[in-house]
Amino acid sequence: MSPILLLCIFFSVICPADSVPEKPKRSALNQLTRTLLRHYDCGIRPVINWTSPTMVYIDLIIQSVLDVDGQMQKVTTSIWYRQIWKDEFLVWDPEEFDGITEISLSSDAIWVPDVIISEFVGEGKSPVIPYVYVNSSGMVKNYKPIQMASACDLEIYAFPFDKQNCTLTFRSWLHSVDEVDLALLRNPEEIATDTREFMNNGEWELLSVPSHYWKLNLANKDYAHIQFNVLIRRRPLLYVVSVLIPSIFLMIVDVISFYLPPDSGTRITFKTSILLGYTVFRVNMMDEIPATAIKTPLIGVFFAVCMVLLVLSLAKSIFVVKLLHHSHEEVKEMSISACLLAKYGSTEQSFSETLFTSVRTLDDLDHSGYEFDLSPEPDLLSLTETQFSSPQLEKILEDLTILKLFLQEDEIEGMAQKDWLALCYKVDKFLFRIYLLIFTVYSSTLLLLWSSWSSS
């Protein structure tokens, strides 16, 4: 017996065959994945007959409206997107692989349709989902959440009672309808009324999501499109309480301020305070009002008109006070008693002393035997004494005549001022009625517009 044979017998006795480690078997899932992707090319459309199109089924669920930017004309939404198509190269018999009917594959390892959203304007913040599900019949399910900013033609004229219609259009970027065709996964009625996943506690309310399929012809080729119309409506309660009601209250206070007497001197001060307060209020509310470069919201026009009305109210009050000042100064200057006031009205004390001296002199003369006849009319004022003529008596007579004229002219001036004051009050009432009419018509028009928008 050769030494080599003996050595083999020795090792076989020491190390039996059962102690040799076996190579681990691959799992059925691993074998299935290797089998499917062994000769797979992700750059080729997965059809056996190249003339048959790949049908891609699309579904959409709106989860929330995150932001509406009127100035940039874009809307940020959070959606759940579902995409299903058939890959004819990913088909297997479940009985050959331990009954496996569905597996997950990397989306980078297989063909994925180039379906995009036409209104997409910003990079989404969606979580990365690197896998897709594939079943044994070759149906590929690509489910993923998307947070996206899309362009939208926003109509904010009716703010805060506005409704928006934003579209999300899905289409293949390169393939025509002969290569990649689109279809809805669910019927349009079910998609339009499906709002169960929408977060309904925010500023916006989801009304419906109608959808339709259409084709666009470019360069003699038809391209499939599926468009979802996201109809949303703003909840106006927050803006009514914080913006409209304070503004309306300030305007009502301005109307009530017309009942202050125009000659009291406090009306202009009060109206100036209201105008200043409204200006501060409007500056603070500018960030709450959406802005566009083309159209101004009706509430912006409302604020501007309210400012104009407050300025007109202040100007009207200034005009009435100016009329009152005119009656006090101009009538006084036009009266005949201006000369008398220049002589006797310089100080109240000098006029009283002159009057006291004249009366005392008349009293002395009366006790001396002279007789005076003082009638209410200036021409009946006379001094009767047959044999008396004195410079002192003539001076007294002149002073009494001047005093009589002054009292009459002062009475006439007071009556003129009363008439002028009554005229100014009539002018003030007339201008107030015009202002109130303008304010009522404008407010009623706005309320009718906003009520019709909110109820529709």
From TrEMBL:
It is a multi-pass membrane protein. Keywords: Cell membrane, Disulfide bond, Glycoprotein, Ion channel, Ion transport, Ligand-gated ion channel, Membrane, Postsynaptic cell membrane, Receptor, Signal, Synapse, Transmembrane, Transmembrane helix, Transport. Residues 30-236 form the Neurotransmitter-gated ion-channel ligand-binding domain. PROSITE patterns: NEUROTR_ION_CHANNEL. It is found in: Postsynaptic cell membrane. Residues 1-19 form the signal peptide. This is 5-hydroxytryptamine receptor 3B. It comes from Tachysurus vachellii. The lineage of its organism: Eukaryota, Metazoa, Chordata, Craniata, Vertebrata.
